[in-house]
Amino acid sequence: MTEEAVANLLRGRVVAFTGAGLSAPSGLQTFWGAGGMYEGRSAYDLASPEGFRANPVLVWNWYAMRIRSGISAQPNPGHFALCALESASESVVIITSNVDELHERAGSQSVYHLHGKILETLCTECAGVEKLDIDSLGNPITADSIPSCHCGGMLRPNVVWFGEFPWRDAIDAVAKYLPLADIVLEIGHSGTVSYGFTEGAAGLGIPVVRINPDPLPPLANSTDIVEGAETALPRLVSQATR
Fold first, then answer.
1. 21 contacts 192 by C-beta, under 8 angstroms
2. Which domains does the chain have, with CATH numbers?
3. Residue 153 in contact with residue 126, Cβ under 8 Å?
4. Rounded to an integer, what distance in angstroms lies between the CA atom of residue 209 and that of residue 103?
5. What pLDDT is recorded for position 139?
6. 210: phi then psi, degrees, rounded to nearest 5
7. What is the DSSP letter of 145?
8. Of 47, 80, 224, 227, whose CB has the highest number of CB atoms within 10 Å?
9. Catalytic residue at 113?
10. What pTM was computed for the model?
C-alpha cells in the first residue's frame, strides 16, 4: 500500500496501537534488546508481584528512576501527529502499552492504557488508586520510605506486571473499536510482548500499517514503514490533512 493510500485511509476510523518505540525519541528507554531497561536485569524481579513482595525497595528504586525520566520527557512529533490526526479523521482511538501518559500530554482525547499509568499508585491492601506524590519519593528509596497508603498498606506503581491482566477498559475498547476500523496502526512495537491485536485485524481484512525503525516479521495484509514514528507519522498525517 502506498503512503498516499495510507493517508486516505487515515481520514476514516483509525485504531492505533502504540508501544515503547513511540516514546523512545522523547528520551525514554525501550525495554527489550540492546540498551533496553531490562538489559542485564531480571524483568521478573523488577516487574512482577513476586518480585515486589521479595524486594519492594529494589522495585521502587527502579520505578523511581523511570518516573523521574518520564516527568522530564516531552511528547515528540509522533505523539503530536496522532493528536493532529483527530481533526482530519472520523475517529482516532489509541490503545497504548506505554505508561508515560505522553499521549494525553500531547492532547490526544481517546487513549486507553493496557499497562496502567506510572504516575499513579495502587494500594496492595485496599486497592485504592491515587496520583503519585512525586515529592514524597526518597532518593534513594529505603525500607522506611516506601510509599504507603492512608490505610497503612504498601503502595506500588499502578502498572500491569508480568502475570497480571491488561486493564479491562483497554481490552473493551479493542473489542468495540477494532472491528469498525478502516485502518489499524501499530507504532513502536517490538513484538516481544504481543496480544495479537494487529494479527486479528489483518485476519479480518482490515489494512494494517506497522511503523517501526527495525524490520518486523512478515504479516499478511500489512504495510511496513521501517522508520521512526517521530518522522513517519508527521509525514503521513500531513498528507491526510491536505
1. no
2. 1-28+75-115+165-242 (3.40.50.1220), 30-72+117-159 (3.30.1600.10)
3. yes
4. 19
5. 87
6. -105, 125
7. S
8. 47
9. no
10. 0.93
